[in-house]
Amino acid sequence: MAELIVMPDAEDLTRRFLDSELGDGTACTGTAPSTWPPRSVYIRRTGGTTTDLVVDRAQITLECRAALAGTAAQLAAHVRALLSAAGRDGWLLEVPLLDVVEVSGPYLDPDPINPKLQRYTQTLVLAVRGEVSTITSPEGGTP
């Protein structure tokens, strides 16, 4: 059997990267909380494809929230700059980051469910490198 190439979890990778850079637990993924903290970055994978055997072009949408529109816009701009710099560096934590492409820059995107918080949304495509799977099944083969 050919090698299994596993792509990284782009949502969680982005969350861990932003938490390491923002340093305050601002970033989250998964099920949206019922109440948002006063400052947050919600990360969702909203699409993407593999372009070859080892590259996943993950489309990531980031929702940046804060009490004031200006603060939410600044948070979105900072997140955009962090991911852009990671693309130039070529790494997203321990994963090779081959490219960052902006699909949509930050824009004011009112949230009807949480109208007390201002939300800026942006979408990027992160080209991350997969790796050969080292996971084996209980029988000793690959899963």
Q: What do these coordinates show?
A:
The chain has 143 residues and is α+β, with helices and mostly antiparallel strands. The protein has two helices and eight strands. It has helices at residues 10-22, 69-89; strands spanning 5-6, 27-28, 39-50, 55-66, 91-92, 95-108, 118-129, 131-132. It has a six-stranded mixed sheet. The radius of gyration is 17 Å and the shape is elongated.
Quote the distance from N terminus to C terminus.
11 Å
Shape: elongated
Q: What is the ordering of alpha helices and beta strands? A: EHEEEHEEEE
The low-confidence runs, each spanning 5 or more residues with pLDDT under 50, are none
How are the strands of the largest sheet arranged? Answer: 2-3-4-7-6-5
- Roughly how much helix do the residues carry, as a percent range? 10-25%
* Number of continuous helical runs: 2
Computed over alpha carbons, the radius of gyration is 17 Å
Major sheet summary line? 6 strands, mixed
What's the mean pLDDT score?
A: 93
Main features:
alpha+beta, 8 strands, 2 helices, 143 residues, six-stranded mixed sheet, single chain, 24% helix, elongated, two-stranded antiparallel sheet
Summarize the model shown:
The chain has 143 residues and is an alpha+beta fold. The protein has two helices and eight strands. The longest helix has 21 residues, at 69-89.
Question: What is the element layout, followed by pairings?
Answer:
Layout: E1 5-6, H1 10-22, E2 27-28, E3 39-50, E4 55-66, H2 69-89, E5 91-92, E6 95-108, E7 118-129, E8 131-132
Parallel strand pairs: 2-3
Antiparallel strand pairs: 1-8, 3-4, 4-7, 5-6, 6-7
